[in-house]
Amino acid sequence: MRQESVIDGIGHTPAVRLRVDAPDGVEVFAKLEMQNLFAMKDRVARQVILEARRTGALAEGGPIVESSSGTMALGVALVGTYLGHPVHIVTDPRIDPVTLAKLRTLGCEVHVVETMTGQGWQSARLERLAELMAGLPGAFWPRQYSNPQNPAAYRGLAGELLADLGTVDVLVGAVGSGGSLCGTSRALLERLPGVAVVGVDCVGSVLFGQPDRPTRRQGGLGNSLFPDNIDYRVFDEVHWLSDDEAFDATRRLAREQKIFGGNTSGSVYRVLTHLAARAEPGTRLVGIMPDRGDRYVDSVYADSAPGGAVAEAPEEVEYGATVASWSFARIPRRDRRLLLFVESNTTGTGMIALRTAVRLALEPVLFTKDAARYPDLPATGCRVEVCDTDDEAALDEAVARVSAGRRVAGVTTTSEFYLEHTARAAVALGTPGNPPEAMARCRDKALTRAALHEAGVHQPGFAVVTDPDGAAAAVAAVGLPCVVKPVGESGSQSVLWCEDAATAVAHATGLLAVTHNVRGQRTAGAVLVEQYLDGPEFSAEMFGVDGEARCVGVTQRTVSPLPHFVETGHLFPADVDDALAGRIADTARQALKALGFERGPAHVELRLTADGPAVIEVNGRLAGGMIPELIRPATGIDLLEQQIRAAAGLPLNLSAGHARRAGLRFLTAPRPGRLTGVDGVARAGRVPGVERVVVSGTPGREVRPPQSAYDRLGHVIAVGSSPEEVGRALTEATGLIEVAVEER
């Protein structure tokens, strides 16, 4: 008789036929993944850990650290401890006593975080995991949310279904990390391209276009983060169930089918039976049942379990609409609506926007002059069309060719340099967007000043210089000190405070000699000389909805010492009273109205003077300087996602889900020279309240104290309940970080 090890017993789970109310000829099966040693994710743990041992990522006897509140923890504990590895599990207070007892009995060290951070329990666990990794040399993190071995582990499950059933018409599964349903579906679709894939999520999970509700009670599905392992291109339909509906369905599964499952299994069962009752004869449906119900005895199965409203059938909604109870949306797997991007940021935001479009059931297409400009582009899976994006005729021809015979949802960009191009393309296609002339006024600061002056909006005095011979007269008209800036650059590039006329004239003359910007576009051949307004800096983060400019919040900004104006830190929302915040927002609205701005995100920079808020700059795009990364943990609003929604005509969600404070400090060089390293990052990341420490500067790079946004070398983000709490965390964290520079 063949002797198998414990981990050889993972998989080979039964597919049992269910007795359901369905038309004759409809067959419904449950794939009982709960019959693994612990649960479905035993498959993932085995695949990931064995592969890590094979490649050397995990040394013999090396520690394993994973973040999980459920079955992934049990799988890692099973495989890791069996193979002789110390296992550390980071979890949260939602962990049930049964799972906790199992983990400790198996020999794991369990670390329970005490409070949520910016993105719920998941981000709190990941922060604690980072601390453990820093203190455990050689530690291996399975990374269930992004490790491609997670979905790869389910090729075996797909093979078992084919071997047992021969064919499958509809596959239903819960979605958490994305591995099980996406991995199984991709493998099945290779053999059965017509299989329909139905995802099951919970109300309050962000995975399929819903606002985050970290207080949701379901475990094993849903998320407050976006795992890399979800392939949104495989889904045909998604269902959301409330906590009460999921718990009720789980009890029905036990009562009707004698299967004692967890709430993931119950949720799948409810959707599976609904689809079966409406299926055509000859349809074979399979639901993946992930885990047993023993860890839910004190919640789902307790006599005191909440028994709120339970819908008997789902409501069909447009994908992207916010739901509160059992609802579903169809997601066309083929012939999805196109979302056209005219160029992009070269930073992570641009690539995230492409992935966000896929998540919102759109097919993104990037039009670019040079795809090599975007090193992370291949990982997005985005379609790329190479054309001269600065040639209006060439861009129009490429857009017409790509969109022929297809439904186009909209046109957008994450690059400030292509706002006007995008607006013209949207007009040509008849899709949502801003008037091109409004975008031209936003892009050209001279046109901005003229429009604000005509509308009577409070701003600095100014003069436009188009010839070096006129620079001295412009400086004399505006007065000293003054600010000299190009009319079409971004990120405080080449903006200079000038104390004397000679400096101002020299800077204006130098700017007029520049003929092309960093994107290779021809400059406008004009320079602004502006009155210098002293006072604290703020920005109003605005969003245009049907011609109405809504204020998402006001950011308090700090900038570098004169003569430059580089942002060095932010606090959101600003530490000001409601009356002042309202005045700042009203001034921003006046400015946007004067420019004709109608739709999507806008970022209005202001200084608070003795005469009230004055507009310094209007950007017809999302705020830079990582401000959206503060708004998300402070309010729960993902502004980048809202930009994509606005461009595609999808429902918006600009309502704050919670009220916290978030702050940021940029890392910069203390002196000119060559960057040799950034030390103390791990220590800074362990400061209470710090959510993230990011270093973007690479050793060997030439650096200097900031003169533009491109001189920043990283940042620290902290979240708290008050400005003082956030400020203390940022001060302590940045004090632990040393930017080491070798002088030349």
Give an overview in words.
With 744 residues, the chain is α/β, with parallel strands linked by helices. It is 32% helix and 22% strand. Strands 1-2-9-6-7-8-11-10 form an eight-stranded mixed beta sheet, sandwiched between helices. It is globular. The termini are far apart.
Strand content: 15-25%
Q: Count of DSSP E strands? A: 30
Structural class: alpha/beta
**Whole-number mean pLDDT:** 92
Name the poorly predicted regions: none
What radius of gyration results from the CA coordinates? 28 Å
The description of the largest β-sheet is:
8 strands, mixed
Strand order of the largest sheet: 1-2-9-6-7-8-11-10
Would you kindly provide a brief summary of this structure?
The protein is of the alpha/beta class and 744 residues long. It has 21 helices and 30 strands.
Provide keyphrases for this structure.
22% strand; globular; single chain; eight-stranded mixed sheet; alpha/beta; 744 residues
